Amino acid sequence: MSLPLNVESRGSGGTPILFVHSFAGDLTHWQPQLEHLKATRRAIAFDLSGHGRSPAALARYTVEELAKDVAAVADEQGLDDFVLVGHSAGALIAAHYASLHPRRIRALGLVDAPPAPGALPAARVREIRAALHGDPYGTVEKFWEQSTLRDSRPETRDKLLAALHRLGRNTVIELTSSSLEYDPLPPLRGYRGTKFAIHTPLNDAPSSLHNVVPGIQHTAIKGTGHWIHLDKPAEFAAVLDIFLRAL
């Protein structure tokens, strides 16, 4: 965690919603959603430690440590009953926070979250972790090009690659390693509130979290890469609205 974090809040009224961006993301990833939601509720996004305009973390970059960023923002913004939505590694961070503070979370939203442990063979995980220490940026780029950037808009691809290279070396190594190691199943099973997922068709496998953890409502958005809310913001907003109206 680092303080102060860069935060943006729009709108008022309704149940607030707090967005958590991905690794190599920042609060601008949620700008279309903040603008869309401000007429009906308070919508908040922030830069995680070491990302965007927030300062570097005071400790290591792990899912557990960055969940403290969510806690800091929720406290600073006075959020006692809110919807928490996280994308990718941000979904892991959001799930960890929700498991620790279940009474504050009205609903937990997972946007194209990483799959359950075991989806990647252990040998492949070891290979990625070893490569990170030699060439962290190149290793992540290669992984993205082979998987998460497939079907992404060119603008999304350029935005993410530029953001990746603005991150500190330790940020890339530590947070990527932590995301590979973190097991979200205990916190997701422990949080008994409403859970929903928005994902790509590629992330609808037996190991996808919404297929492993009972009770997660889910919807796929087609024709998009991993950064669904950047590739198709209007369609993402429409699906998000459906989940929010059901609360």
What does this structure look like?
It is globular and about 50 Å long. It has one domain (7-245): 3-Layer(aba) Sandwich (Rossmann fold), CATH 3.40.50.1820. The two termini are 31 Å apart. With 247 residues, it is α/β, with parallel strands linked by helices. The chain is built from eleven helices and seven strands. It has a seven-stranded mixed β-sheet, with helices on both faces.
Number of strands: 7
End-to-end separation in angstroms reads 31 Å
Helix content: 40-55%
User: What general outline do the C-alpha atoms trace?
Assistant: globular
The largest β sheet comes out as:
7 strands, mixed
The chain-level structural class is alpha/beta
CATH superfamily caption: Alpha/Beta hydrolase fold, catalytic domain
The CATH topology is Rossmann fold
Gyration radius (Cα, Å) is 16 Å
Query: Kindly state the mean pLDDT as a whole number?
Result: 96
Proportion of strand residues? 5-15%
User: Oligomerization state of this entry?
Assistant: single chain
CATH architecture: 3-Layer(aba) Sandwich
SSE run: EEHEHEHEHHHHHEHEHH
Q: Work out the count of structural domains.
A: 1
Unreliable stretches covering 5 or more consecutive residues: none
Spatial arrangement of strands, main beta sheet: 1-3-2-4-5-6-7
What is the CATH C level class, in words?
Alpha Beta
Count of individual helical segments = 11
